[in-house]
Amino acid sequence: MPTRILGLSAFYHDSAACLVIDGKIIAAAQEERFSRVKFDADFPRRAIGYCLEEGELSSASDLDAVVFYDKPILKFQRLLETYLAYAPNGLPSFLEAMPLWMRKKLRTRDLLRRELDFEGPIYFTEHHESHAASAFFPSPFEEAAIVTADGVGERATASIGVGRGNQISILEELHFPHSLGLLYSAFTTFCGFKVNSGEYKLMGLAPFGEPKYVDRILNDLVHLYDDGSLRLNLKYFAYCTSLRMTNRLFAELFDGPARLPEAAITQREMDLARSVQAVTERAMLGMARRARAMTESPNLVLAGGVALNCVANGRIVREGSFDNVWIQPAAGDAGGALGAALFVHHQLNGGGRKADGQNDRQQGSLLGPAFSNREVAAFLTERGLDPAELDDEGLVDRVAALLAEGKVAGWFQGRMEFGPRALGARSILADPRRAETQTVLNRKIKFRESFRPFAPAVLVEHAPQYFGLDGDSPYMLLVCGVDRRQRRSVPENAEQDAAGLERLRQVRSTIPAVTHVDGSARVQTVGAEAQPRFRALLERFHERTGCPVLVNTSFNVRGEPIVRTPAEAYRCFERTDMDFLVLGSFIVEKDPTRIARTRWTARQSSEATSGSAPDTVERDARRFGLILAVVLIVLAVLAGVFAHPGRARVAGAAAAVVALASLLKLPVWTLVYRLWMRLAERIGKVVSGAALVLSFFLVVTPFGLFRRMVGRPSLDTRWPGQRQTNWRPKQTPAEGDDRYRRQY
After folding, report:
1. Which tens digit of pLDDT belongs to each residue from 448-493?
2. Which residues contact 333 (CB under 8 A, 6 or more apart)?
3. What 3-state class would DSSP assign to 327?
């Protein structure tokens, strides 16, 4: 009988769902692709619905188990310990965090049962166990060292482990508040970008700067131990007590206040990005070497948000003393849903696992929804379009010809990617040989910062001729140098005269659109297995131009998730300067007489997806009206019983009016309902806020001060400390599977 397991991640960022049946990944998707809310943290209802549909399950009751990717109560305990350690500081953070914990996070088990209508077993893996499982179980290795690193899970911020066969084991952990991910995020926000989304920007900005702040970071902010662990100097950081990452001392250390979002980027931000990137690479190399020494395995697998730092990954591949490295393409919290489901199947249920050392089980990370040619044709007809349906040969020939002319394509094929990278299913494609391509894509199509680099997709057999890459990189998670045979020298005077972002204009290779200013590129190698049509397109472009490379960037614009449906793809195509759109076997070219192009902005994107659906509001208003009518009827009866006929008549009449207005769906009643909900929300916030303030100062603060007075601090905040390591051995209770049925 098949074993059907649903893995979930939610409530922080990148909520996702994954369905595993008999150890095979059937479906996986982030909630943002359905809700159209970037990095959506809400419960992944739509992603769950898709996974169940893809697995041909009628409802969640057909599942054998549900697993959540971390332990909420253990995380809540760490949060309380942090407030105790810093009280009376920390009130703003306390007021922000506690309502969500009280409403949802502490009731995760009940919420899962209610949302899914599921009575079967529910499991809770630890956060870094989920990351480790997502790294090892889909990998091609029978045995491997495991390194995970991110901001923070429950307590762990990084871990080293080992995987063998169908089991993983975490050997040691780095604990909050000492975190490589939080260090990188602190610089992200200080440079004017958003945490959990701007880290890519900081990494892209780094090559424009000089590592002038490296010594300052290593002397004052972070101590890197010889064994790969680290310790932060917390007097410069605010994330333990504030809604901000850094404080005044941090700003003084780095020559002034933080850059404001959307303000001009100065040389200081470029130098800061380069410096923290260098420190991050050194730290990740240290962790990798520690993992090799502990496990003696020639194979390494990586996951966690820091594993999306492809520059650091590239250095680990080149210098980390491992023969083989595999990185989970959905390395962040979304991948935790996948890891949690595989953990239950293999680790808890004893499901078998065979690895051949070559092919992973991630299926190209093409785990999202697909749309047939029939569905695409129906959509195009609805839009009043009637392009011809082409066979594979005709399609790739036409698209390759248009790309060779310098045109930009929206490419929509097959199953959507799982993870943050577009890998040739939901992609924007262009000719990498044209120097102007990078600027055109950033300014007229993606509407994002000019310095953001683009990735090359290259035929795997031609990768050595174009990039310094020894092996495959199918998930676009490695940065390496462009091969010297493709490089073009920049005149010395031009190099000296150009400063900062001006260096973007310099042509450094035969493929300038994907060559960063330091001569590197984030490479995706394309074989024949995962995406035959994308592979065929690259081959045809190579035949036409002699270049086996295409620019490949995600099919979205700034502020919006990657497109999921043909309608979303067409809308993006319609509102940008893309030249043509490929939907399945159909090509739609831009017709200036039909389309009024309007500049796409993040605000437009959010407005298009915000707010409740009208039918939902009407339904809620009707329910509210009927409940209120019942209450008024009860009051009328009570008034009649206690000899208040006038009041009884008023209450009865009010009940009749309310019931009639709600049943008839009168617009005025919907307006009344909206006003009432806003008022109730404001009253609720005031009351709950007052209660939280009292609890913070009357309970949390005295208890925290007492603990510090008796010498029992909640967190290890010493700097730099006397220990020779900051790794902590992983303590695993010998309680069997039962401990995974608890939220702590």
Report:
1. 777 778 899 999 999 999 998 878 999 999 999 999 999 888 765 5
2. 9, 12, 13, 14, 15, 16, 69, 305
3. strand
Three-state DSSP state, 360? coil
pTM over 0.90: no
Instruction: Write down the residue that tokens 């520690």 correspond to.
Output: 290
Integer Cα distance of 50 and 369 in angstroms: 7
Strand partners, 360: none
Tell me the two tokens of residue 383: 């839009």
Residues facing 459 on adjacent strands: 526
Tokens of 402: 């248009």
The tokens describing 13, both together, are 């960022």
Contact 415, 370 (CB under 8 A): yes
Answer yes or no: are the C-beta atoms of 513 and 431 closer than 8 Å: yes
Give the SS3 label for residue 65.
strand
Alpha helices, H only, 255-391: 267-295, 310-319, 333-343, 373-382
In whole angstroms, what separates CA 721 from the centre of its chain?
Answer: 34
Structure tokens at 160: 């080293």
Report residue 95 as tokens: 């007021």
Is there a contact between 555 and 540 (Cβ–Cβ < 8 Å)? no
The torsion region of residue 637 among left (phi > 0), alpha (psi -120 to 50) and beta comes to: alpha
Q: Token pair of 530, please? A: 């995962």
Q: Which of 37-41, 394-398, 443-447, 701-705 has the lowest mean pLDDT?
A: 443-447
Average pLDDT over residues 188-202: 91
Q: How far apart are CA 657 and CA 655, in angstroms?
A: 6
Instruction: Give the SS3 label for residue 694.
Output: helix
The catalytic residue positions are 13
User: Beta strands 455-459 and 520-526: pairing type?
Assistant: parallel
Q: The tokens 């035969």 sit on which residue?
A: 510
- Give the list of residues 6+ apart from residue 698 with CB closer than 8 angstroms, or none: none
* Cα–Cα distance, 81 to 418 (Å, whole number): 35
User: In whole angstroms, what is the distance from residue 314 CA to residue 482 CA?
Assistant: 13
Position 644 pLDDT exceeds 80? no
Q: Which helix (H) or strand (E) holds 159?
A: strand 156-164
- Do residues 396 and 533 lie in contact, with contact meaning Cβ atoms separated by under 8 Å? yes
Across the chain, mean pLDDT equals 89
Task: Tell me the mean pLDDT in the region 125-140.
Answer: 97
**Which letter does DSSP use for residue 445 in this model?**
I
Query: Could you give the CA distance from residue 236 to residue 659 in angstroms, rounded to a whole number?
Result: 59
- Give the side-chain half-sphere CA count within 13 A for 205: 24
Question: CA-CA distance, 423 to 366, in Å (whole number)?
Answer: 8
Between CA 234 and CA 315 the distance in angstroms is 28
Q: Give the model confidence (pLDDT) of 201-246 as tens digits.
A: 999 999 999 999 999 999 999 999 999 999 999 999 999 988 899 9
Distance (Å, rounded) from C-alpha 554 to C-alpha 538?
A: 17
